[in-house]
Amino acid sequence: MKKIILACCVFMFSIVGYSQSDYRKGYVVTMNMDTIHGFINFRGKSFNAQSCHFKKERTSRVIVYTPDQIRSYKFNNGKYYIARELQLNYEKKKVFVEFLVDGLVDLFYYTNFVHDEYYLVENNEGELYKLTNDDKNIYKGSQHYQKSSNKYKGVLKYLFRDAEKTRKDVDHVLLNRKSLVKISKKYHNEVCVPGDVCIDYTETKTQATYSFGLLFGVASTSLSEIKSDENPYVYLEDSDFKSSAYSSFGFYYKRSLPNWNEKMFFESRVMYASFKQSTTNDHSNVNSSPIRDVYQVDAEVSSLGLDLLLKYEFNKSLIKPNVHFGIFGDYYVSKDYKATRTSTFFNSGNLKDRYTYQNTEDIFDAYNAGVILGLGVRNNSLNKQEISLDFTYKFGLGYSNYFNTHTISLNLAYGFIK
């Protein structure tokens, strides 16, 4: 199971790292203060903090700028990054920080691939302060607990010491983008003089989008046996369960993840399906035994499933391909299990007698869970509506102690975008 999950993660992040780029209009400012207009690859905030991928024209070759090579870069009507040297984990490193507010105090943001987040404030003298909120260990007798240091509030009160109203509001400030942008602008407006300009670069940030709708699918599920010496159901050995195609239906909810990557989406699905499975097992040898046992096993199942997916969408104009992976959990609302054994007795190779026994003891669990991989496309040409089609593979681990499930499905979705 761990190997499967690891393979899914490697597959997904390989796609994210090497997939088609999303170049948007913007410009870079060189060390000589020259401004070069062109197109910049819009990636996730962690990637944007490490390098700038720039093209003079859409068909030009890519130039990769590091924070040591340019002063800043900006997307037209979008995010703005400047090169700064920061003290990170006991070492100095030059990175691109996102410029959030340009005022009497400047506010910056930086994050890396392990999601360490830093908010930084710079005053008019060019002094840079890191805002932190580390946990403190408190010991009282035999009791031990942690308490937030709120160190960032002390820094803000010091920087806003000439603005009485703003300084009082610092006690209610949270260490997040929205709250810090708001208090920085409030300080600027309280102490600025005519002509001082405060620019909020976050006002042009990409907002998350939402969509929801109906799902219809066609699927087929097969079982693979888990070989075990402890299997008490001998008649199930070497089973070849087959399932004909069956239909499923449900609904989905999808949300974009612009803070991570504008091409990434989280999607949840709830699906209902009903299917049948059967196998015929012959556990005898007529030539060496006078008894021939044939087992006919039939199962009819109705399931209610929840899928949790991460989707990555490639940058195409109208038809957007995507890849996705995730996890699923199925609950079997109803099950009808029946195992029929037919014993045929021979005498000198001739039929002598035949008996039939039936067993309805259910050997399958009520739940199943596993991982999902898939590919799909989405039509992006409709006004506030979307149609998508995807192919998925599910590997399930919980159908029983003796079988894994393999489900392939083709799903059609129709939904509305908000």
CATH architecture verdict of the largest domain:
Beta Barrel
The H-and-E topology, N to C, reads as HEEHEEEEEEEEEEHHHEEEEEEEEEE
Sum up the overall morphology in one term.
elongated
Radius of gyration: 31 Å
Instruction: Label the structural class.
Output: mainly beta
At CATH level 3, the topology of the largest domain is Porin
Could you say how many structural domains there are in total?
2
Largest sheet: 11 strands, antiparallel
What is the count of β-strands? 22
Question: Can you describe this structure?
Answer:
It is a single chain. This protein has 418 residues and is mainly beta. The chain folds into two domains: 17-204, no CATH class; 210-417, Porin (Beta Barrel). Helices cover 12% and strands 55% of the residues. The chain is built from five helices and 22 strands. The strands form three sheets. Strands 1, 2, 3, 4, 5, 6, 7, 8, 9, 10 and 13 form an eleven-stranded antiparallel β-sheet that branches. An eight-stranded antiparallel beta barrel has the order 14-15-16-17-18-20-21-22. A two-stranded antiparallel ribbon has the order 11-12. 24% of the residues are buried.
